[in-house]
Amino acid sequence: MPSYSFVLNGKPVTVEAPADMPLLWVLRDLLNVTGPKYGCGVGVCRACTSHLDGGEIQPCVVPVADCAGRRVTTIEGLADGDTLHPVQQAWLDCDVAQCGFCQPGQIMAAVALLKKTPRPTDAAIDRIENVCRCGTYSRIREAIKKASADG
Amino acid sequence: MARQLSRRKFVVYSLAASTLTVAAPLGCDPSTAEGIEPTAADRRRPSDVLVTGTDEEMLVLEVTAANKVVVRLPRVEVGQGVTTAVAMMIAEELDARLVDVDIPLAEARTKGNQYTGGSNSVSSLYGPARQLAATARAKLVTAAARRWHVPARSLRTRDTRVIAPDGRSATFGSLTASAARIHRPSVSSRPKPASRHRVIGRPTTRIDARDIVTGKATYAGDLTVAGAKPTVVARPPTLGGTVVSVDDRAARAMPGVHAVVKVAGGVAVVADSFHHAFKARDALRITWAPGPLASLSDAAIRSRLRAAVPRLGTAPRGSAQTEGEFEFAFVSHAPMEVLTAVADVRPGRAEIWFSSQTPMDARDSIAAAVGLPTSKVRVHVMRGGGSFGRRLNYDAAIEAALISKAARRPVKLMWSRADDIRHGRMRPASHHRIRASHARGRVVAFAHSMASVSEAYPESGATAQGGVTPAVARAANPLPSDSGLYNFGRLSGNSGSVELAIPLGAWRSVDSGTMRTAEEIVVDEVARSLGRDPVAFRRTTLRNKSVKAVLDKVATTGHWGRPLPAGQAQGVAVHEEYGSCVACLVEVNATDPKNPRVTRAVVAADVGTAVNPRGLEAQLMGTVIDGISTVLQAGLHIDRGTVRESSYADFHYARQRHAPLHFEVHLIPSRREPGGAGELGVPAAAGAVANAYARATGTKPRRFPLTF
Ligand code: FES
Ligand code: FES
């Protein structure tokens, strides 16, 4: 079995896995990193959203082979110790979550958006594809704007 | 077990323990959970009776030596915020810090009320939870008074501590052992009057919010218990299809595959990871026999439903009629977390972990399915990633147990998203015929007949797939809407059904989500034919003052009647249920009628005491998105016995771009007991969206979802 090394949430890891194994299952089933959630497995719901070299990806459709030698960040790697990332903090301040299942993906998508677009318009926020079946969209919008304003 | 008789349901017991542990029985019937205001009977009876026993049937509160207040909750948290609401009730009466209150979910019990549904959790827990905490507080204060030799009355409680006038203080944790020995507290153990509430009624962030935003919140699929192996099931293309033959040689030969077993729903693969399991599933060569609906498609289902709607009676003589026929498609629950269950079935016992609204029924069914006595089956209730009624059924748990038994190993079964959408469950499709008869400017009769699909299987035993939903089965009557919301003269109605072998389930707000939505559309059309404004017409015909008040609230704050450009319009609707009422006003931009956008939504609700206004607002927000989704865009097609949709790519539940840019909630202040709120908003939101769309486009919406 081939093995792949990458940096996961700041720490180097090596896994033995088939080349086509999606990163999502490498994270969840091999490394027990369960923040990224399965919601469809086909890149649609975005519950699994994480970052590869700082950019947004859907790990359910990214083979582990594509991650070799790169930096993977999941929701678990966002906070700095006990200090939450400003987007996580905005999510707390706005009490965005309901069931919470989509929220790791929502937060990672928002972080990626704010990195590219520090002052996103409503139209830019509208382009976020992540499904929230609990319907927390208004608070997501509010939290993104708050995180943007708080810098 | 000794029990002090009382008219009230809120007797509190002390359990014999080395830490302070008190328990209150939970009534099965939420209607008994009323009138917590103290009565003479309360004052007479001692507030505690020492008992030994288990916590079956009880809400149990323990104060640990580590200064935590732990209440094991016989309900499930699926996002509706029940754990936060209960923590607030406990913190209020104990004067504990919210962070010191833990609300783990109780595992399946053998007695009592462990049912989450019908929007009754807060109303059924409000009395017992506060009484429980108030009793614990009285004992802690008494224990501190004895320790310090001061009058108990002179002591205060704050931040999980008892505080003396001289500034001395003790944590509850340091007092718990001595409080456990107090039988008769020397201060009142009555809950506070509402006027002294400082926690209840204050907008509060969820107690699990930090766990969620850091990815620590644990769902069934995140468990690593018992070495359970990832498991998926190859399912038939058609609903209810069956395996004729399977060639599993290629699948079994694949790396990381542990077992391949046949189950009622298809062929299960147990593997090292979900990647291995999916790959092996796809390598199975299965010949399927079509399911019982293989010749049936939407058009036929629709015409059978139409034919099953009972005739409306004759209209009053001399009246004019406003009539409409309405069709609602099947709708998937599609909770964000797909059905997942961990099962460890051994020869003499079984243990299951999953998110369940009905864990007691689930345990009985699982025990029967695997051939064990109920007492040998443990069901651990996990938090759920959404439910909307889906977790009333326990299909996946039974399936996981059977796979574990057959494979002789612990399994972690996950339904794929395609499994979830293509194999149910779903809100039944329905057809409605509504007629309002009016004369001299008033509605004199209102008739509503409907038919919906009901779940039935030709051979008995097929319901072993997780049970039909007895607790939420539709009552044949009364129709129209139970509440008789309007002064519409003679009300009449009837219902029929079309029995199909199709997996159905109660969907948030159940029948009201279709019935009341259709009725609110007719109310708008009646107003139009009478030349009345929809808000003004409702104001003069609504029966209940509270409903008028919420309507007025949205009309004022939502600027009802403000001018809008062509292609845009406002719409309004109201609903009353669960001892609560709600009004919703939306604005729709339907400049492109195929791609409408709800731009604004204003909701007003009167739910009695709002324990956590922030949580309540979240529930109303969710129901507005449900209304938008089900009316405008999200539904399921049946093509020759197959559900056409298979993910959120084609089941169009709303995304951010479909959600209102502006959303606001107004809560009517109230000291009434809490009513239900989790499902309340669906019909009002759906009705308002349909009415706004009708006004924006000059059409009469009849078939939902509209863009389908
Ligand atoms: S699970 Fe990755 S996008 Fe849905
Ligand atoms: S919070 Fe439940 S799916 Fe988004």
From TrEMBL, chain A:
PROSITE patterns cross-referenced by the UniProt entry: 2FE2S_FER_2
Domain 2Fe-2S ferredoxin-type residues, every copy: 2-78
SUPFAM superfamilies named among the record's database cross-references: 2Fe-2S ferredoxin-like (SSF54292), CO dehydrogenase ISP C-domain like (SSF47741)
InterPro entries, A to Z: 2Fe-2S-bd (IPR002888), 2Fe-2S-bd_dom_sf (IPR036884), 2Fe-2S_ferredoxin-like_sf (IPR036010), 2Fe-2S_ferredoxin-type (IPR001041), Beta-grasp_dom_sf (IPR012675), Diverse_Oxidoreductases (IPR051452)
GO molecular function per UniProt: 2 iron, 2 sulfur cluster binding; metal ion binding; oxidoreductase activity
One Pfam family here: Fer2
Signal peptide span: none
Lineage: Bacteria, Bacillati, Actinomycetota, Actinomycetes, Kitasatosporales
Coiled-coil region(s): none
Keywords for this protein: 2Fe-2S, Iron, Iron-sulfur, Metal-binding
Name this protein carries in UniProt: (2Fe-2S)-binding protein
